[in-house]
Structure to design on (530 residues):
């Protein structure tokens, strides 16, 4: 009955789902790029996938700015505006990390020793699982379609698992007979990979707070 | 018609000042556009005046005997008190100004319905108390319903915004129904206006105040208000409106500002936070005492000046 009063809110809602689609696309590109890197090393496909990840990340940024503009045009009530903007800003760091890691590998011509590949692949798999769960959690917040508390708990478990893998990889790097400069480069990459699950965990907690706060 | 100018001015200032109590938090936080709020409030104030304004008018007309001259004096004194106290930065309520002026007229007439006046004064004290109690009950009741709703963030926003518009309109309705007596009741007592023309002129002048000058008041008051979340703001507006509506049934005009203070205090009690500063409470006590005294004094002064005559010496 009052739908005509809330055109802006409906547009914002659609843009948020569009933003989550972009995040998923950036995640898929990142995973494919890393697999190509481990299998073929530096090649045209790898460069192409980095470019694709960058484009998707930029598109996500544009969507976020569009949402911000609509918010400042007075969509939603003020406290929800702050919550949604803060949440998107926090999520937006994740595609930024995908881009950062890929550029780090590309520009520093980083070579990953074979004995680390399985562990790093495992770290990427669990980190991206955190991202999938996070997208589900954000959708649950906006669609009221899932159990946010159990999703928070799953992300938290995955994040702990990632921390464990991260420490194991770093220990193996420094145990190995590698060039000290390469050790530092690899350590930095592993830390940034670990940061994906850390950020997903931070955002997940934020979603939980937003959801809890809305109970009166 | 010129004798009604002071009443129209009083209605105008009442509308300009009291719109902040019904749509203030919604407009100052940009949840509702000013013009949407102003048009809705003006329409509902007029509706409230026309449909339920009679009861409070009857209470005021029964307090003392009025003539056209006394009605003009009391109306002028009320409008003067509101202006003077606003300029001096002192708390003021029209619902306490008009009884002060009527009391002075009663003294001049040597005819005052003391039990009726006692009922009016008792309702002043009951207004913030009513606001507190109704806000507490409403908060628990509405929270139980709201928390059971299976709605997402966007839907919850929509629900709150629509409810705020409905509650604000209801608040405007009760403002018109309750406070229109402050504007034109003395002219009904004097036999200058019929009840219908009194509620029509009163309601329109309040609406005129809302449309022309409530925006700066909302912006000023909005900055001083405690920042409430949307749900609490809804409870406050509803509690204030219900309180004022109850006093409309009783037939006594009361201060919407004091009902709001009570309601904000009630929300603070439920949420365990300090929502009201001590200064606000002191202001209410000051308004209860200073406003009627000032209106009474000003009525006597205006009457004295109006009756100054040259008496030739023999």
């Amino acid at each position: 009955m009052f739908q005509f009063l809330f055109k802006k809110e409906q547009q914002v809602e659609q843009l948020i789902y569009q933003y989550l689609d972009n995040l998923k696309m950036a995640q898929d590109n990142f995973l494919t790029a890393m697999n190509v890197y481990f299998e073929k090393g530096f090649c045209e496909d790898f460069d192409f996938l980095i470019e694709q990840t960058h484009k998707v990340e930029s598109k996500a940024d544009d969507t976020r700015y569009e949402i911000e503009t609509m918010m400042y045009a007075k969509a939603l009530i003020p406290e929800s505006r702050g919550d949604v903007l803060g949440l998107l800003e926090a999520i937006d760091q994740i595609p930024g990390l995908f881009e950062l890691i890929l550029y780090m590998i590309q520009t520093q011509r980083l070579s990953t020793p074979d004995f680390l590949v399985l562990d790093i692949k495992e770290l990427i798999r669990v980190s991206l699982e955190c991202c999938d769960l996070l997208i589900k959690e954000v959708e649950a917040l906006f669609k009221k379609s899932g159990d946010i508390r159990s999703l928070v708990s799953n992300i938290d478990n995955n994040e702990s698992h990632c921390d464990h893998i991260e420490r194991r990889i770093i220990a193996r790097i420094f145990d190995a007979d590698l060039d000290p400069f390469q050790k530092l480069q690899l350590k930095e990459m592993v830390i940034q990979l670990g940061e994906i699950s850390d950020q997903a965990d931070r955002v997940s907690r934020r979603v939980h707070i937003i959801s809890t706060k809305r109970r009166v | 018609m010129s004798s009604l100018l002071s009443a129209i001015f009083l209605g105008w200032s009442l509308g300009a000042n009291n719109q902040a109590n019904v749509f203030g938090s919604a407009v100052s936080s940009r949840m509702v556009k000013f013009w949407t709020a102003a048009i809705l409030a003006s329409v509902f104030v007029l509706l409230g005046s026309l449909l339920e304004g009679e009861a409070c008018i009857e209470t005021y007309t029964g307090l003392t005997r009025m003539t056209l001259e006394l009605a003009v004096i009391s109306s002028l004194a009320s409008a003067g008190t509101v202006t003077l106290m606003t300029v001096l930065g002192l708390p003021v309520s029209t619902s306490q100004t008009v009884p002060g002026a009527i009391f002075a007229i009663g003294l001049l007439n040597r005819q005052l319905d003391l039990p009726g006046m006692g009922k009016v004064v008792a309702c002043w004290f009951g207004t913030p108390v009513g606001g507190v109690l109704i806000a507490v009950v409403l908060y628990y009741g509405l929270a139980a319903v709201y928390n059971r709703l299976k709605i997402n963030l966007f839907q919850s926003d929509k629900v709150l915004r629509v409810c705020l518009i409905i509650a604000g309109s209801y608040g405007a309705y009760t403002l018109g129904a309750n406070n229109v007596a402050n504007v034109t009741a003395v002219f009904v007592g004097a036999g200058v206006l019929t009840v219908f023309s009194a509620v029509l002129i009163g309601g329109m002048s309040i609406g005129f105040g809302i449309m022309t000058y409530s925006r700066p008041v909302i912006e000023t008051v909005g900055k001083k208000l405690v920042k409430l979340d949307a749900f609490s703001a809804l409870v406050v507006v509803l509690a204030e409106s219900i309180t004022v509506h109850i006093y409309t049934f009783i037939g006594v005009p009361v201060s919407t500002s004091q009902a709001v203070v009570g309601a904000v205090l009630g929300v603070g009690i439920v949420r365990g936070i300090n929502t009201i500063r001590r200064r606000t409470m002191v202001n209410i006590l000051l308004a209860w005492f200073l406003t009627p005294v000032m209106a009474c004094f000003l009525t006597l002064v205006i009457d004295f000046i109006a009756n100054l005559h040259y008496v030739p010496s023999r």
User: Anything to note?
Assistant: Chain A has a mean pLDDT of 92. The first helix of chain A runs from residue 7 to 40. Chain A touches chain B at residues 2, 5-6, 9-10, 12-13, 74, 76-80, 83-84, 141-144, 210, 214-216 (CB under 8 Å). Residues 123 and 164 of chain A are 9 Å apart (CA to CA).
